[in-house]
Amino acid sequence: MMIRDYQPGDFQQLFSLWQELDMGGAERGDSPEIISQTIEMGGRLLVVEDPASGELIGSSWLTFDGRRIFLHHFGIKKKYQRKGYGMQLAVESLRVIRQKGYQVKLEVHQDNIAAIRLYEKLGFCSFPGYDIYMIRKPGEIEPDRFV
Known about the structure:
- By secondary structure, this protein is an alpha+beta fold.
- The protein has helices at residues 11-20, 32-40, 85-100, 113-121, and strands at residues 2-5, 44-50, 55-64, 68-76, 103-106.
- Strands 1-2-3-4-5 form a 5-stranded mixed beta sheet, with helices on both faces.
- The termini are far apart.
């Protein structure tokens, strides 16, 4: 397996991977345009590829907001899990993050115990008492309604 940077021709396979792992979709704003935009803003999207078949088996999307790096869409295809690929991808992601020199933040489902263990092993800590609030559809933002 090899870890490399995303290329635009990867999108269909990547999108399928994200859907299989319940990590992404159009409703989350996952599109080739958004990926390009986040890369232009200083982010990276790493993929794990089986060079023999060309199959993408994992991803780690690092986005940058000027203050910190967000690690998301991190996962390995189910049939390849527990073989060390997740750790390899995490280590490479942390290399990129360290090189950039910013804090890193991620979100994980509470029931994803394997991922939580990996993140804790890598030095991530949780912030008990915090919940995440989000408006996913910008068209539903109605600020004038409250004035």
